[in-house]
Each structure stands twice: as structure tokens, then as C-alpha cells.
Design a protein that fits this description.
With about 425 residues, this protein is of the alpha/beta class. It contains 18 helices and 17 strands. Helix 4 packs across helix 5 (about 115-125), helix 4 (about 90-100) crosses helix 8 and helix 13 (about 300-320) packs parallel to helix 14. The longest helix has 19 residues, at about 375-395. Bound molecules: shikimate-3-phosphate (S3P). Shikimate-3-phosphate binds near residues 263 and 264. The site of shikimate-3-phosphate has 11 residues, from helix 10 and helix 16.
Length: about 425
């Protein structure tokens, strides 16, 4: 059975060169873990999803005015060495309404939910001149938000008296919370559901003849200014919109990352959870060549080893059987192979700090480190050189520091399940 226990993920951006960025998902189980990874990896920014928008706001060094009001952020950007938080959800809400040709000024707006998304919606609508009422299950939360914005509030069970008179109804409630009675909806209503897959409100609104807006536009219009902040580059909004369309996911899963990150240990565990076979590229290579990796590199050189590594991985990626592939730590150094991995597999970067990686391996079996007088320093330097390549190739990063292979596998499994079910 597929299920999701991982509460969240973050998208991270990485400056490669002045005009090149690597973006990947970052699976973290708390805002603290994400901030730790942010510093460890030297990321330039993150886009943050629920439920850590408030925690992340608290952990930032500088908060934009909207973050101070909402106590929530969805964007963290490194500016002059400081973690600065912003809330571009506001643009998500207003951009979607504008695209749908719905003016806000002077309109009666009912916002359902006073969490991160509800707060941003209320803030945005109020700022655009809407007459806003926030309704929430916990009335106190709605009251606090309403007081900070200077708008009205209500309990969710009081909305029968408010919704029918509203012009715009924005729901930021969970999919299973069904509080809008179809009988309240009239064709003049605009109904906006923050949910972008499987909105229950959609059918009700459409049956009632209302204009319906789903959360895809919100996602897009918050993403564009966040991208601008994180990269300093003007976003290709049309391209972003196209990228949001359902995509066919590659069948294989490749694990990349530094030596000792845990790829070989995670691969069989993850594979058995997914009921897929696993292949360890290093082991397959040793079998194919009839020699150990230290022997191969020692006798025939690294270039020969890389050539063999490419052949083994190309073969694995061409297989018709979806497979979990554990790659050698240097596979991403071959640009053509990096591209092949990205095109033909869901690439997971397993990360642990180089010192932690080193503590997990027998350096004498890793010739690229063993040849140095100070393997610790060599590992740190090699990782520093490679981290951009891992970032560029990865679809998602998972942190294996202080986690067992079972825990890392579970995290990957949960994140992949989310994507397969969205
Ligand atoms: C290497 C990593 C090793 C192995 C070889 C080279 C590298 O694999 O392929 O020693 O260049 O990082 P693991 O990452 O499985 O240790």
C-alpha cells in the first residue's frame, strides 16, 4: 500500500555559475533539518510548502513585511549571507484571480481556513481592496488573523450566513474538509480552491454555474516571483506552466551521492519496498571486469574505470525492467552519463556530510581517497567539486546523516508515492 508519512518537502536552488542554477526537491522532516541542509550545501534559496511555512519564518534572519504580518513564508533566499524570508503566496492568489479576469477591489471575499495559505489569501485580498472575512474551525485563529489585517472573522460553522452573499470564496481547507453547501452557490460566485489535484469544490461550483479557479494558478504565480528571488533570473512562466502538466515519470530510480552516503545500503531496502529489483553499479562492474575497483583503477587508471562504469550504467538504464540503481559516487562526473541518468530515471541524491560519509567506509577500498595522505581533506575537497554535479542531476535530495537505510528508504518511498499520486 502506498502511503505518505513525510510531512514536507522543499525545493532548493543552487547557483552553479552566474547564469546557471540547479533546482531539486529537498525532502526534510522539519524546517530545522531543511535550514541545516541549506547551510551545509550552500544553497541560494528554497521554496517552502506546508506545513513548515511558519517554522521557516521563525528560522529566517530577515523577514519581509508580509512575513512579519503572516508569520509564514514560502520563500527563503540567501542575501548578503542572511536567510531572508518572503511570502509569494500573495502573488499566487492575486495572479490567479487576475488571470481569471476577477477583480478584487470592493468585492466581498470569504476565505476558508486561517493557516499559512488562508492567511496569505486573506492578506492578498485585503491588500487588493477586497472586503475580507476569514473563517476557521478554531475561531481564535481566525480572530487573530483578522485583527492583524483589520478584517472580519467567523467560525466555520457560521458561514451559511456569509457564503451566499460573498462574491469570491477562497478555500484553503484540506481536501476532506467539506463545508461548502452547493445550495449556497450562485452563478455570480467565483470559487477558488487552493487544492490543485482532486478539488471537491470544483464539481459543486461547476454544477452551480460558478466561475471556478483551481490551485494550479496559485502554484504557478507564487513560483514565478519565488524563482526570480532565488535566481535573479526572469522566469519563463509559460515554460513553468507547461512543466506543471502531468509528466510521464521515468521507470528507474537511480541513487547518486558521495562515497559512503548510503546508496548501496539503501538500494536493496528501497527496491524491496517498491517490489523492484536493485542493481549496484560498482558490484556489477567488478563482476563484468573480473577485478575489484581498487585493482581496476590501480592497474588500468581512472579513465578506463569510468568507461566501464558508463557501460554498466547505460545497460542498467536501458533495461525494460524498472530497477533501483545504486551508482558509484563519481558517476555524475561524466556529463553524458549525468544526462542519461536524469532522462531515464528518478534521480535521488543521498547526502551526508563528507566526514560522516568517511566514517562509514573503508578508505582502502576507495582508491580516489586512499591515494591521499589526508583522506578527510581529500573527501571534503572532492565533495565540494562534485556537489554542483549532484545537484544538477538530482530530482530530489534526501539526507542520510543520522538515519538508517530503512529510514532513508522510507523517506524516498513516501516522496515518490506523493508524486505518483498527485
Ligand atoms: C567512486 C566511488 C565508488 C567507486 C569508485 C569511485 C567515486 O563508489 O565507484 O571508488 O569516484 O566517487 P561508491 O560511491 O559506491 O563508494
Amino acid at each position: 500500500m502506498l502511503h505518505s508519512k513525510t510531512p514536507d518537502l522543499f525545493a532548493a536552488a543552487y547557483p552553479l555559475h552566474a547564469d546557471e542554477f540547479a533546482c531539486f526537491r529537498l525532502a526534510a522532516q522539519s524546517a530545522e533539518e531543511a535550514v541545516w541542509l541549506f547551510g551545509e550545501l550552500g544553497l541560494s534559496g528554497m521554496n517552502i510548502t506546508a506545513p513548515f511555512k511558519s517554522d521557516m519564518a521563525k528560522l529566517s534572519d530577515v523577514r519581509a513585511p508580509e512575513v512579519q504580518t503572516l508569520n509564514a513564508c514560502n520563500t527563503l533566499a540567501l542575501e548578503n549571507g542572511k536567510k531572508c524570508s518572503y511570502n509569494t503566496d500573495i502573488f499566487g492568489v492575486l495572479g490567479s484571480l487576475e488571470k481569471a479576469g476577477t477583480p478584487v477591489a470592493g468585492k466581498r471575499c470569504l476565505v476558508l481556513g486561517a493557516g499559512g495559505a488562508g492567511s496569505a489569501a486573506a492578506y492578498a485580498l485585503h491588500a487588493a481592496g477586497g472586503v475580507v472575512t476569514v473563517a476557521n474551525r478554531t475561531t481564535d485563529k481566525a480572530r487573530r488573523l483578522a485583527e492583524s489585517l483589520g478584517c472580519s472573522y467567523a467560525a466555520l460553522n457560521e458561514i451559511a450566513g456569509i457564503a451566499p452573499q460573498a462574491d469570491i470564496i477562497v478555500s484553503t481547507l484540506y481536501q476532506h474538509v467539506d463545508v461548502v453547501d452547493e445550495a449556497w452557490l450562485k452563478p455570480q460566485h467565483v470559487v477558488f480552491d487552493a487544492i490543485y489535484h482532486g478539488s471537491r469544490l470544483r464539481e459543486k461550483a461547476q454544477r452551480a454555474g460558478c466561475k471556478f479557479i483551481d490551485g494550479a494558478g496559485w502554484l504557478l504565480h507564487q513560483g514565478a516571483p519565488a524563482y526570480r528571488k532565488l535566481t535573479g533570473v526572469e522566469p519563463d512562466v509559460e515554460g513553468m506552466e507547461k512543466a506543471m502538466l502531468p509528466q510521464k515519470l521515468p521507470a528507474h530510480i537511480s541513487l547518486i551521492g558521495f562515497m559512503g552516503a548510503g546508496k548501496s545500503a539503501v538500494a536493496p531496502v528501497l527496491a524491496s519496498m517498491l517490489r523492484m529489483p536493485a542493481i549496484d553499479a560498482d558490484a556489477a562492474l567488478e563482476k563484468k571486469c573480473g577485478a575489484s575497483i581498487p585493482q581496476l583503477i590501480g592497474e588500468k587508471g581512472e579513465a578506463y574505470f569510468r568507461e566501464q562504469e558508463r557501460v554498466v550504467l547505460e545497460e542498467a538504464l536501458q533495461s525494460a525492467t524498472p530497477t533501483v540503481i545504486s551508482c558509484g559516487g563519481g558517476a555524475v562526473t561524466q556529463p553524458q552519463l549525468g544526462r542519461l541518468l536524469k532522462e531515464n530515471s528518478i534521480v535521488i541524491w543521498i547526502y551526508a556530510p563528507p566526514a560522516c560519509c568517511l566514517s562509514r567506509i573503508d578508505v582502502s577500498t576507495r582508491p580516489l581517497l586512499a591515494q591521499h595522505a589526508n583522506p578527510q581533506q581529500a573527501a571534503a575537497e572532492l565533495f565540494e567539486k562534485r556537489k554542483f554535479l549532484y545537484a544538477k542531476t538530482a530530482w530530489m535530495l534526501v539526507n542520510s546523516h543520522c538515519r538508517s537505510e530503512a529510514q532513508v528508504s522510507q523517506l524516498i518511498y513516501d516522496e515518490i508515492s506523493k508524486v505518483l499520486h498527485s
